Amino acid sequence: MFMKNVMLVLMSLWLASCAAQQSSSTTPGAQEILTGAERMDIYLPYLKGKRVGIFANQTSVVGRTHLIDTLRKSGVTIKVIFGPEHGFRGTADAGEKVGNYIDEKTGIPVVSLYGSKRKPNSNDLKDVDILVFDLQDVGCRFYTYINSMQDFLETALENHKPLLLLDRPNPNGFYVDGPVLDLKFKSGVGQQPIPIVYGMTMGEYASMLLGEKWLSAKANEINTYNISTRPTVDTPFHFMVIKCLNYTHKSKYSLPVRPSPNLPDMQSVYLYPSTCLFEGTVLSEGRGTNKPFQVFGHPLYPKNLYSFIPKPNEGAKSSKHYYETCYGWNLSGNIEKVLKEVNNQVQLKWLMEAYKLFPGKDTFFLKTNSFNRLAGNDILMQQIKDGKSEAEIRKSWNPGLNAFKTIRKKYLLYEDFE
Q1: What's the fold here for domain 31-242?
Q2: 101 beta partners
Q3: Residues 385, 386, 388, 393, Cα dihedral to 10°
Q4: Which pLDDT band holds residue 98 (cuts at 50, 70, 90)?
Q5: What are the extents of the domains in the chain?
Q6: 170-208, pLDDT tens digit by residue?
Q7: Is a pLDDT exceeding 90 seen at residue 224?
């Protein structure tokens, strides 16, 4: 009961924070952004009378009501729910194993699609006529929901199940930056040759997977996607995106629900593309504090730096340096300050400064190769060790970024920032 009360308090704080931020992060006079899930007049006719399977989590909301509850109230029959990393209710730790269960509130079976089982099997789909995907992404290559979407899309094609993707704005969709993944470093935190920040919504990214034939061999055989004849609501489909309204890639969209336990507010969401790289080092990236990905440090840094003590909490029951005093950096502040610090880039200055100041440089990067998986190559680590300047490192990204941007442009569903 205590933990449930804690989660309710945290959710209330998130909603209050986002309400306060929305006024400052939305262009004055702009129309309200509507998510795909809120455009029920378009997609509800496809679900009525059908047996539905939904990939969803705590971010799958229509207003302040969960999509599952909204659809059931509208008479939609939901046979099975699929859940990603952190689980259907969004409370599990990063990487924590979540098993299958019956959802207590709805009585609907929940199938976990994270860990060893990444795709539904034929038994999971035997009573399903149509699939729905609705997860809030944060626009970073190593945030695992885009991989979950790819697996789900492949499953839909391979099993001849139509898939509706209810699109949502990308809160980091207003820029593109970072090294492009070298497929030699393909892993659970990076599947495709895209940069750390790719500037696409889930619907746009799915269109790119289809158009570039980046799916499984079997799915690619069935895939009939053609960029010149995108599906519409009036034609039969294998896959269809229900677009957002009034969203562009210039929008600064505040999330109505925190996307995962360790992204508790928009400051963490904006800093995450840069500070998540600390997960591949011996530093604490702030898990176990109230400012994950906004603070980072280590017990060996000078004691005159910012100090914090990570401790277990809901969604971060174990991580680095728990109960130890860490010294380091605090990037938190109001939204305007954080956005100015980020400056539409994957910032390297904090990582480079932390490396230079760390007393045992040969132990700074974890021996697990996790930093290279996050970076998408083994070049960035070596560049930092070699003392390359930020300008030199960024220049090395340009060929890959330019090639990706050319591909990206073909699949945009919304006005771009350039």
Answers
A1: Rossmann fold (3.40.50)
A2: 110
A3: -60
A4: low
A5: 31-242, 266-387
A6: 999 999 999 999 999 999 999 999 999 999 999 999 999
A7: no
Grade residue 413 by pLDDT with cuts at 50, 70 and 90. Answer: very high
Phi-psi region of 75 (alpha: psi -120 to 50; beta: other; left: phi over 0): left
Count of CB atoms situated within 10 Å of the CB of 307 = 15
Given this model, what pLDDT does residue 103 score? 84
Query: What are phi and psi for residue 204, nearest 5 degrees?
Result: -70, -40
Check pLDDT > 80 for residue 109. Answer: yes
Helix axes 145-158, 202-211, angle to 10 degrees: 50
Residue 352 contacts residue 386 (beta carbons within 8 Å): no
For residue 104, what pLDDT is reported? 81
* Residue 178 to residue 396: CA distance in whole angstroms: 10
Judge: domain 266-387, CATH 3.30.450.
no
Taking the C-alpha atoms of residue 401 and residue 194, their distance in angstroms, rounded to an integer, is 8
Burial of 83 (0-12, 13-18, 19+ CB in 10 A): buried
Rounded CA separation 280/299 (Å):
17
Percentage of the chain beyond pLDDT 70 is 87
Q: What is the rounded distance in angstroms from the CA atom of residue 60 to the CA atom of residue 64?
A: 10
Two tokens, residue 177: 């930056």
90 vs 48: CA distance, rounded Å: 28
pLDDT of res. 89: 65
- Answer yes or no: are the C-beta atoms of 283 and 73 closer than 8 Å: no
Two tokens, residue 318: 């174990």
Task: Quickly state the pLDDT bin for 21 (edges 50, 70, 90).
Answer: very low
Res. 14: pLDDT tops 50 = no
Helix/strand/coil for 297: strand
Tokens 């060929």 belong to which residue? 399
Separation of alpha carbons 217 and 214, rounded Å? 9
Complete edge-to-edge strand list for the sheet that includes strand 239-242: 101-102, 109-112, 77-83, 51-56, 130-134, 163-166, 239-242
- Spatial CA neighbour of 54 closest among 142, 113, 117: 113
Q: How far apart are the first and last CA of the chain?
A: 49
**Same CATH fold assignment for domains 31-242 and 266-387:** no
